[in-house]
Structures are given as C-alpha cells and as structure tokens.
Amino acid sequence: MLTKKINVTTPKYQMIAVDLASKIADQKLLIGDKIHARSTLANQYGVSPETARKAVSVLVDLEIVQAKHGSGFFVSSIDKAREFVTQYKDVLSLRELKGELIESIQKQKEELNYFSDILDTFVEQTKRFDTINTLHPVSFTLTEEATHLEMTVGDMNLWQNTSATLVAIKHCDELIVSPGPYTKISVDDTIYFVGNESTLQRVQNFFYPQSG
C-alpha cells in the first residue's frame, strides 16, 4: 500500500529572497554592499529576470535592501534580514507540519479503506461458509416416542414434509448411505440429512409433533 508523498513547495522568487537575506544575516553581504543586477541574479539562480526582480522587490518591501535610483540595490539592514529569515523558517516549519498532517490523514484514510476491504472480504467469505455449511449432514437419533417408525423412506415423504434431504441412516452397526425409498426407519436409528437452517426444527416437528 503506497502513500503519496506531500511536497511543500515555495515560490522560486521567495527562495531567492530568503537566500539573499541569509547571506546578509550571515554578513556575507554587509551594509552598503550592492546586490547584483536582475540579469546577473537570474543567471546565478537559473530563473527569469522577472523572477529575480520579484525576489529583490521582497527585500525592498521588507527594508532589507534599499533602491538607489540609477545606482541599483544596496544592503540596508542586517537585523531585518535576520528577522525575515527567522520568520521564514517558522512559516516553513508550519507548512511542513501541515504537509505531514495531510500525509498522515491520507495514510489513515488508505488504511481505513484497506481494513474496510478486508472486512468486506471477511463478510463475503462468512456468507459463503454459511452457504457451504448447509451441505454438512446433521444427525438425528429417533427414540421410541418418534412417529413414522417402521415406515419406508418413500412412504413418509420426508423431503416433501421437511425439505430435508436424507443422505444416510445408521441402523444398529450398519451405515446405509443414500437409502432407497423402501428402506425402513426404526427406533434408535440415526438419520443423516442436509438442509437449510430451519430444516432441523422441521425434522424434529415431523417425528415429534407433540413437542412442537
């Protein structure tokens, strides 16, 4: 069972802005240092000039760098760069946590679906077992209080009266399999039959009507 990985993505311009701010926060770029032109940043990060422009605009809006008309962009605040990097890491952690939660929820849903399939299979197999189980012979021993004793199988019409299919009769020490219509049933005989779940009660009522 495979779980799809949730990826938390960040816009490229924002990643570039964070990278530049990190360099300023680490003082790899100092106050007054000039930020590369858009075309240079675009080549450096492998993005379009427009993406590079948006990255620098973020730093300008946060007052990390300052635009000087005709001269370019220059580092103006290390503290604000550090603040921006810290906030970004906090937000990224929250986004990653959200992704992990979504992934966990999806995994739980897949597991619930998996167990639901197992349950459906179990129920279906149980139904099949119940159906097959009706073919297992049921035994029933006749006492002297039973009716229809010394009657033949054909005369008593067992199947017509009970829906039981007679498969064998144990008479004394002899087991008569598939007894014919002229086979008699006597006291202490054990009959073996198959049928549905209500067949046993019908057979009991047939031989012992007073108990029903």
CATH architecture of the largest domain: Orthogonal Bundle
User: Mean pLDDT score, rounded?
Assistant: 84
The CATH superfamily of the largest domain is identified as: Winged helix-like DNA-binding domain superfamily/Winged helix DNA-binding domain
Helix share, percent: 40-55%
Largest sheet: spatial strand order: 4-9-6-7
The biggest sheet amounts to: 4 strands, antiparallel
Strand tally:
9
Query: Mind telling me the CATH class of the largest domain?
Result: Mainly Alpha
CATH topology name of the largest domain? Arc Repressor Mutant, subunit A
Gyration radius, in Å: 44 Å
Individual helix count: 7
Name the overall outline: rod-shaped
Number of domains: 2
Percent range for β-strand residues: 15-25%
Helix and strand run? HEHHEEHEEHHEEEEH
What is the SS-derived class?
alpha+beta
Pfam families: GntR, TrkA_C
Organism: Melissococcus plutonius (strain ATCC 35311 / DSM 29964 / CIP 104052 / LMG 20360 / NCIMB 702443)
Keywords: DNA-binding, Transcription, Transcription regulation
Domain HTH gntR-type: 10-78
